[in-house]
Amino acid sequence: MMKKWIALAMALMLVLPLIALGEQIKGEITIGIYEPASGPNGAGGKQETLGIYYANFVAPTVQLSDGVYKINLVEVDNQSSNDKAPSAAQTLVSAGASIVLGSYGSGVSIAASGIFDDAGLVAIGLSCTNPQVTIGNPLYYRICYLDPFQGTVLANFAKDEFAAKKAYTLAQLGNDYDVGLAYYFTEAFKGLGGDVTGETFPLGTSDFTAYLTSAVNAGAEVIFSPTSTEFASQIITQAAANGVKVPILAGDTWDSSVILDAAKGTDLSVSVSTFFDEGDTSSAAAEFVTGFKAWLNANPDKLANNGGNDIVAAVSALGYDGYMVALEALKKADSADREDIAEIMADVTYTGVTGAIVFGENGDAMRDQAFIKKTNNADGSWIFVKVQSIAK
Amino acid sequence: MSDFIRANLPYLLAGISVGGQYALIAIGYTMVYGILRLINFAHGDIFTVAAFVMVYMNATMPLYISLPLTAAVTVALGFAVERVAYKPLRTAPRMSIMISAIGVSYLLQNLMWYITGGLAKQYPTIPWISSSVTIYTATTKMVTLVTPVLTLLLVILLVQLINHTKIGMAMRAVSKDFETSKLMGIRINQVISVTFIIGSFLAAVGSMLYFSNYTAVTPVSGAMPGLKAFVAAVFGGIGSIPGAVIGAFIIGICENIIKALGLTTFSDAFTFALLIIILIFKPSGLFGEAIYEKV
């Protein structure tokens, strides 16, 4: 008898919300999530995806003129791999996505841009910083800053903060992000009168002592290694173990708890440039940080995807902003039609937790400053250093 | 001269240390091949699983329990893989069992993705061997020095086991002729299980040494060392234990010399080019048994 009542109650629980919402929800709009969940960038991709899901949790529906639509998120795994990316992108096109968010990692974004373009589908790059993502792809937009900017910022920082004249760059062979950022850093650093030695390592490398020794032998005063986090923790721990005391600099990918874990207890100086600082006290950012942490802590599997802690990665903030920009676009177009969205996308503006987003040339958001943070090796947290802009 | 040593000693140390770790994995490959004529592709993944087991165990229990327990779990996994994925295929064509090995490898890898979420985990610090030590002018971890010594010690023990015990004799007999040793009353399954147990144990030890040095553990961090250990086993002559060890040290040291020369881009290419050259010019490897046709 008891069982029957429980069954009835459960059935009602399933049906009731439908009745309650039946009148308000007009339909569904699909937003595609094009992110890596596996491969070297899987960890970062998951953190970015978490930001998107949190945004969806905060704003699950969008109001268009003919009613309220529920947002349906469809996720594909591009496996951090340029050759698997096109088929993942195709899945989103076939799933009827109105707009696509992603990806973490520039290479996969470049690889998918043709597919999205053919389908007339607007894509919003969240943290892919390589210029090639948007150049020549009128439908690819981007809400973060670009590598030429980031590389220059870091070169300026190396000169201002460490008075470095000699730098060593370490990038993963064949990775568009690594190699591109190392190139822009090198150009900028040379422009500031410095000297650079650069090396690349193949995928799957775990022994970096040889590279670190080369850096020391080259007399480098700063090591710039814009690699994925998987390699980052190897580089940091091996630098510590081998007594390499040269300050290490990296780009936005290193803004991850993985780096904090690796640097904790060492005497290294590790600094990164990033899109967002957890300690930002502006009201929008603070609200996001509090809400996101609470949401993570309430969901053990989401907490695991964030690396087992509630430190807010900058890419999660970008994921959040990207989703909100997509909602703005839907509202502005007042339609879920790909063509309508493409038409108005360039005019969408939004002030998010990472700052104001206004699309400029090539569909790139106009950003003119980056946050620099360094690791606090005593308790494994980030210390805000400064907001760095480019020396004019 | 002293400048030359100061600049190059770290490369050599890294080479010897990496070589020792490749050797411990390579032994697992070569022993299984010697007996089953099977390349156990899952070996590199067992190596990685051992690292994750250690990471999770160490979170809840002290080191003197988690270390032996990790070895035990790894051995159990190696044993289970053999029983579940290879034993039912004993009479099947060799290709089937090879494909089964590839399947196990992907299964383990994806299970690790699923369970760990894919973010790199920090390997626990094992006291003493994780501490830094300065040799001449180069600073390195103690484990760099411990690895080659421990590797050689384990290999000597293993060779004694194979040459001077009953189970060792059985292993030699099985590797010479599978069918005949069966007729002679050797319990084939028992011998094969022991082989997997020894191989997995060495993989567990190798994993402890390797990840004490390279502390980030991801589901694919065993893939590259596994592959290189396989090349080392082929280079030394697959089936030969001393061959695998020497091959592993040669590959480890050469890789680092190439990096020291500034040809970092080609260090992996070298390893795999070596595999191709060996397969073309001396397929039996440095110490491999000569292949003769039975008439």
CATH topology (level 3) name of the largest domain in chain A: Rossmann fold
How many helical elements of chain B?
11
| Helical percentage of chain B | over 70%
CATH class of the largest domain in chain A: Alpha Beta
Q: Which range does the strand content of chain B fall in?
A: under 5%
Neighbour order of strands in the largest sheet of chain B: 1-4
Unreliable stretches covering 5 or more consecutive residues of chain B? none
Question: How would you describe the oligomerization state of the chains in this entry?
Answer: heterodimer
Most extensive chain interface and residues per partner: A-B, 38 and 38 residues
In total, the number of strands of chain A is: 15
Estimate nothing, just give the exact number of structural domains of chain A: 2
Give the N-terminus to C-terminus distance of chain A in angstroms: 79 Å
Strand content of chain A: 15-25%
Mean pLDDT of chain A: 87
Counting DSSP E segments of at least 2 residues, the number of strands of chain B comes to 4
Radius of gyration of chain A using CA atoms only: 22 Å
CATH superfamily of the largest domain in chain A: Response regulator
Helix content range of the residues of chain A, please? Answer: 40-55%
Order of helices and strands of chain B: HHHHEEEHHHHEHHH
Structural class of chain A, by secondary structure, is: alpha/beta
Question: Which stretches of chain A are poorly predicted, pLDDT < 50 over at least 5 residues?
Answer: none
